Amino acid sequence: MAVLWLEDVGADDVGVVGGKGASLGELIGAGLPVPPGFAVTAGTYREFIEDAGIDEALFDAVDVDPEDSTALREAEATAHELITETPFPDPVREEILESYRSMGSDDDEAFVAVRSSATAEDLPDSSFAGQQETFLNVREADLLRRVKECWASLFTQRAIYYRQQRGFPHENVDIAVVVQRMVDAEKSGVMFTSHPSTGDPQMTIEAAWGLGEAVVSGTVSPDNYVYDRESDSITDITVADKKVEMVKDPDTGETVQLDVDEKRRTERVLSDAEITDLVTLGERVEEHYGTPQDVEWAVFEGDIYMLQSRPITTIREESGERSETVGGDKNGVADDTNNVTGDGGNSSRSENGTDHAEADAGGDDGDVLVGGLGASPGAVSGAVRIVDKLDHLDQVEEGDILVTEMTMPDMVPAMKRAAGIVTDEGGMTSHAAIISRELGVPAVVGTGNGTSVLNDGESITIDGDKGTVRPGADESAEPAEEFEPVEAARPETPVKPMTATEVKVNVSIPEAAERAAATGADGVGLLRIEHMVLSLGKTPERYIADHGARAYQDELIDGIRAVADEFYPRPVRVRTIDAPTDEFRELDGGDGEPVEPNPMLGWRGVRRSLDKPEPFRQELAAFGRLIEMGYDNIEVMFPLVNDAADVEAVKRHLQEAGIDPEDHTWGVMIETPASALLIDELANAGIDFASFGTNDLTQYTLAVDRNNGHVADRFDELHPAVLRLISDTIERCRERGVDTSICGQAGSKPEMVEFLVEQGVSSISANIDAVRDVQHEVKRVEQRLLLDSVR
Ligand code: PEP
Ligand code: MG
Predict the structure, then answer these.
(1) Cα 709 to chain center, whole Å?
(2) Of 506, 576, 671, best ligand 1 pocket probe by most atoms within 8 Å of the beta carbon
């Protein structure tokens, strides 16, 4: 038989219907309210691959080096193709469809959830949950395809990575698929029947409006209710601002994300009576299994349904033992696991509901666990949340310290939630450093080994000024609930220092626009678009192929406009794309990117744009559309030009895009010694401004790779050779009436600011957090120069 009804299976049937199917069957058997459904058995999958003769090819294809991302991507694609392109045997196909049809009626086709139920998933000693596909609101037309896609999701990059890493043979893992009637939930969430790290009899319920996907995926911050089972009372209620909900579109049956209306956003999702009902159900489930459970639930027409239950795997065996698993702590209650020196473990509950080891457990006096570069200022304490490249970002909760090898564009939502960020790799100009500064999140980057030295759940204090990570929590560094990134950026005195040299700000993510504008900066000296593009997850070429050029332009327009609006009429200098090939290679469609021995010296900036004009044209078209819309504050800047030939070429593109170089302000970055030495030529080509990109100018002048930790101590933007190139260029530009600026990281350093003002630079563009100090420094130097001139 290809399928088994859930009511006919139980806990012993994991091998047949997978962990999810078995657990649902078990719950039905225990009389708990579970929506009806069946499972396409694991044997059906196995027979499918064996009978079709694709099994060997499949297992060969996924036996790859887990650290090789290209190989992982190829493995996933091959497995997907093998499975989805192989037809179902007729009897199997009929049996699945017949079973499905019996769940609906003649005139009412059932909406079902199609969920992977892997035989290795949900086992008591591992937490692979969430790695395989789930499809909601499926009907007959898509059912068979979705079943195959669930099978194929046994071989996602993430799943292959996990198994290869942990030595789990792919051949041993089977997959069943649960097809279950959808509960069109009015509200839903998850429930931990006991405290997820201590095992104490304290239930935590998270609840949001609509379908549970929003909570499980971390799309929405749910309400949080804590119920003490000893005193039988609700001890804590945190009502979140639930901005969105997932619901079924009545026309298409698709799951769509909607904005929650103003009133319900901050309304309590669960009444006391509903909490009590959920607690009763939770106790029954826990009693049934004999271990604390992590339960997904939903409310439909006033009735509570249980969608899934699995054991909580994060509870420590005994106090003081470090938690082994990485998953599960979804409820925002941080783990108070001992710190590395072993003197932690006492926990105190702070107002925001986060457990922290007491101040005397560590803080400033403790040993430094790891050190790196203080990339974004501020000190903060929180629980370590280690995120592998392919791991779940939704594990990162509000108040956690995100610890990762290197941040990537799709980590930004998690970076925003995090109280602090620690990376193994990267320097002051890395993605992690730039983005954390813009978000106002303290960060220590380039620790070398943070992800291996720190332990998930451990309480630490990071200092983003000193670049240190210490054990334990320091009360003075606890994340302030009232921390308002925008307010923090606003100058304290109402009158900002009036300076002749303009002080601007750098922006890389549109989300930082409001914060950047609040600094009172005179404009945006550099708006990078790399983040907007890379966060699409596809190379520009692939994105355009899949969605059309107009859609690509629209994405850029949305991001740029967010910044241009905040600053209008102050000028915003938008730069065309400058991402190295290794970053493009990470994206969907990036397979064909050349593997360059040193991408920093490679195919980036205008070199790439001029060679590959199609995406470049769309960037310029987007800028042109914005100008047409009335954003006359937009200026265009080109990265990594070397000489007049480059500048003439980009100028022709500007003209072709309908942006008249005579009428609109445009210019180039000075990032290579060549461009500095040939500044007269560039001025002749008609540039309005030249902006020093000292991150690159320094690396190319000193031959010091900005991303290479081995030579980081030689990366010196104040090196006399770099300063000579800058001062000569400013002098030439002043003679030619060309504005000069700086938008590299060094523009935030007082020594560089002093030097540039002395040389007569027109503007300085700094990081958000540095704008205020730069304004004061510019003012001080200008006043000194004035005084010197009259003395
Ligand atoms: C620079 O090189 O200084 C610069 C601002 O550009 P990016 O850091 O984006 O290369
Ligand atoms: Mg640069």
Answers:
(1) 24
(2) 671
The CA 638 to ligand 2 mean position distance, Å, reads: 10
Burial class (CB in 10 A: 0-12, 13-18, 19+), 539: buried
Separation CA 747–CA 764 (nearest Å) = 6
Distance CA 689, CA 682 (A): 10
The whole-number pLDDT of residue 676 equals 98
**Distances, alpha carbon 507 to alpha carbons 532, 560, 621, 762, in Å:** 11, 10, 21, 19
**Which residues is 299 bridged to in the sheet?**
187, 304
Q: What pLDDT, on the 0 to 100 scale, is given for residue 307?
A: 85
Task: Please work out whether the CB of residue 429 comes within 6 Å of at least one atom of ligand 1.
Answer: yes
Quote the ligand 1 centre to 577 CA distance (angstroms): 11
Q: Is the peptide bond before 569 cis (omega within 30 degrees of 0)?
A: yes
Rounded Cα–Cα distance for residues 183 and 710 (Å): 56
What is the predicted pLDDT for the residue at 360? 31
Q: Looking only at Cα atoms, what is the longest distance across the chain?
A: 98
- Helix (H) / strand (E) element for 386: namely strand 379-387
Q: Which residues contact 158 (CB under 8 A, 6 or more apart)?
A: 131, 390, 391
CB atoms within 10 A of CB 779: 18
Whether residue 167 contacts residue 159, with contact meaning beta carbons closer than 8 Å, is answered with no
Give CA–CA dist 393/218, Å, rounded: 9
Q: Residue 546 and residue 774: Cα distance in Å, rounded?
A: 44
Measured from the Cα of 639, ligand 1's closest atom is 6
446 within 8 A of 464, measured Cβ to Cβ: no
- HEC-encoded secondary structure of 645-660: HHHHHHHHHHHHCCCC
| Ligand 1 contact, 469 CB (< 6 A) | no
CA-closest residue to ligand 1 atom 1:
693
Q: Is the CB of 743 under 6 A from ligand 1?
A: yes
Residue with tokens 């899934």: 308
CA 626, 629, 633, 635: dihedral to nearest 10 degrees? 30
> Which pLDDT does position 393 carry in this prediction?
75
The number of the ligand nearest the C-alpha atom of 531 reads 1
Tell me the ligand closest to 707's alpha carbon: 1
Residue 694 Cβ contacting ligand 1 at under 6 Å: yes
Does residue 671's CB lie within 6 angstroms of at least one atom of ligand 1? yes
pLDDT, tens digit (0-9, with 9 covering 90-100), for 162-217: 677 667 788 888 899 999 998 889 999 888 898 765 677 888 898 999 988 777 65
* Ligand 1: centre distance to CA 559 (Å): 19
170 an active-site residue? no
744 CA distance to ligand 1 middle (Å)? 5
Beta carbon of 335 within 6 Å of any ligand 1 atom: no
Cβ(209)–Cβ(184) below 8 Å: no
pLDDT of residue 73: 84
Atom of ligand 1 nearest to the CA of 526: 5
Q: State which residues of the chain have pLDDT below 50.
A: 121-130, 315-366, 494
Residue 258 pairs with which residues in a beta bridge? 245
Catalytic residue among 431, 531, 653, 733: 431
* pLDDT, position 488: 64
> pLDDT (tens digit, 9 = 90+) per residue, 406-457?
887 777 778 888 999 999 887 777 778 888 888 889 999 888 889 999 998 9
Instruction: Name residues whose C-beta falls within 8 Å of residue 280's C-beta, 6 or more positions apart in sequence.
Output: none
| Mutation to probe ligand 1, out of 582, 694, 696 (largest number of atoms < 8 A from CB) | 696
Q: Is the CB of 25 inside a 6 Å radius of any atom of ligand 1?
A: no
Q: Find out whether 208 and 214 touch, Cβ atoms under 8 Å.
A: yes
At 609 the pLDDT is 96
Gap between the Cα atoms of 633 and 630, Å rounded: 8
**Residue 71 CB coordination number (10 Å):** 17
In single-letter form, the type of residue at position 714 comes to R
Task: Say whether 719 is catalytic.
Answer: no
Query: What residue owns the CA closest to ligand 1's atom 8?
Result: 695
